[in-house]
């Protein structure tokens, strides 16, 4: 397998809360979430959580090939919880969480699990591009984020509205009427979007955080098919460059309302033989 991976923080002086890694036959991407600059109850932070969970999960995918991906994720969540539950308040409403995209090649199939609004692109040898992404968070968010989108990104008023929005989302996290995301509770893993496709039907797969998929689902500057073609032709760095150009063009979020003017962005392209 051949891997191309680029991951950049929102700004050079900020921690990158995305995590992506691959080993022969498996790959993971996580996009950590928390309250920037706010109390989370965790002394380690969001970047620690996403990288720790990603590393444990990748190891489990390789070491436990007979376990379903959702079961591997549940065990990884439980393991990471055990690493800091004695030192951190994991019942804190802002305790770190993360999206998860996991893929594994086994027995002639590509297995996948997606939890949260990161994306998996499955590029077929026939030229088709199928997208797997969990939109439950977006569906809930649309009902709550009106005041956020009406204000200039980065303004004090926007920050206050964003804090209220995040507080409302927290009350719907990992609930049947809300959305599911990896955090302290292993139960969330059972709500991942899981499936499999024949390995020989695929040319490559792309794992992307929502900081990179902005080009399609926030800025509407490309279709999913065009986004994959850009990755395949020019590599992950070109996707992130175009995202950064769009963010710089609209720093106040007037054209493209968003919670963060810039976001961490990660693209992992796994090219199959």
Shape: globular
**Average pLDDT over all residues:** 90
| Percentage of β-strand residues | 25-35%
- How many whole angstroms does the radius of gyration measure? 18 Å
Number of strand segments: 10
Roughly how much helix do the residues carry, as a percent range? Answer: 25-40%
Helical/strand content category: alpha+beta
Uncertain runs: none
Please state how the strands of the largest beta sheet are arranged side by side.
1-10-9-6-7
Taken in chain order, the helices and strands follow as: EEEHHEEEEHHHEEHHHE
Termini, distance in Å?
6 Å
- Please count the helical segments: 8
What's the short version?
This protein is an alpha+beta fold and 273 residues long. The protein has helices at 46-63, 69-84, 136-142, 146-149, 156-170, 210-217, 224-234, 236-249, and strands at 2-8, 18-23, 26-33, 97-106, 109-115, 119-124, 129-133, 193-198, 202-208, 265-271.
